Amino acid sequence: MITPRSWLPTPVLSLLLLGVWLLLARSYAPGQIVLGGILAIIIPLVTYQFWDTTLRIKKPWVLLRFILRVLKDIVVANFEVACLVANPWRRLTPHFIEYPLMLEERFTITLLASTISLTPGTVSANLRLDGQSLLIHALNVDDEEELIRQIRERYERPLKEIYEC
Amino acid sequence: MSIFVEALISLMLITGGVFVFIGSLGMAHLRDFYMRLHGPTKATTLGIGCMLIASMGYFWSVDGHIDIQELLITLFLFITAPVSAHLLAKTGLHLRLKHTQKTQGKPIELRSEEVGDKPVPHPDKGHG
């Protein structure tokens, strides 16, 4: 029996694909919508087996707030890092930090690592094989504990809330 | 196009240019591989963002309708930039690239003898 779940396993991804297709094609003609719709159904079906888990977004509003917060952080922190880099009298103290992970799913860990890399001043450098901690390189840190606490409160908890709870 | 819109677009372009420049400056001047990695991957997100906003604003004021295609560039940038940064850092660790002595914290990948106290030169120096 064909149920909506069997031919449309990931509705959110399909919608995203359709949106990206329409933007790429730069037209909203019916033909493009049909073509985009067909692609949006076929691509998830073909690639579905490669993903180990599909997670459901449990709290879209928290996700929206998370995205806005990350965007704001990118802007603010970019100014800070630009000042650090451009200042000729800078005294940078780079850090390698082991960040103990609270998240369990690989997808959410990927999201967290990407967020860490996108916000200036920190790059995620390595995920330990056991998935228990993430190695982070930070450009300038005075207090290691403070950074870990900040990442935990600002990014990891919302992600946990959105996907894993 | 009114002078106000023009000024706003110019401001965005200049801000974007400054951020991208500082990112490149970081890549050229910071002291080791891991620090240099920060410049191009981060300062550019905001720099490119500003330029794309300027581009959207310009075509909006010229064509009259807003074109959100630029958002796609931002989306792809946000997906690819962290992945490439992560892979570069991971490769750096794997090849045991030197890091400056000031670096706090010891990842198990890097042993103590890989610490250089002088600025670590770009690998391609002396070839050209």
UniProtKB/TrEMBL annotation, chain A:
Belongs to the CPA3 antiporters (TC 2.A.63) subunit E family. It comes from the Bacteria. It comes from Halomonas citrativorans. The keyword tRNA processing does not apply. The chain crosses the membrane at residues 7-25, 31-51. One of its GO terms (cellular component) is plasma membrane. NCBIfam families: PRK08965.1-2 (NF006518). This is Na(+) H(+) antiporter subunit E. It is a multi-pass membrane protein. Keywords: Cell membrane, Membrane, Transmembrane, Transmembrane helix. The keyword Cell membrane applies. It is found in: Cell membrane. Its main location: membrane. One of its GO terms (molecular function) is monoatomic cation transmembrane transporter activity.
UniProtKB/TrEMBL annotation, chain B:
The chain crosses the membrane at residues 6-30, 42-60, 72-89. The keyword Transport does not apply. Residues 100-128 are annotated as: Disordered. The keyword Transmembrane applies. Residues 108-128 have a biased composition (Basic and acidic residues). Pfam families: PhaG_MnhG_YufB. Keywords: Membrane, Transmembrane, Transmembrane helix. GO terms for molecular function: sodium:proton antiporter activity. PANTHER family: ANTIPORTER SUBUNIT MNHG2-RELATED (PTHR34703:SF1). This is Na(+) H(+) antiporter subunit G.
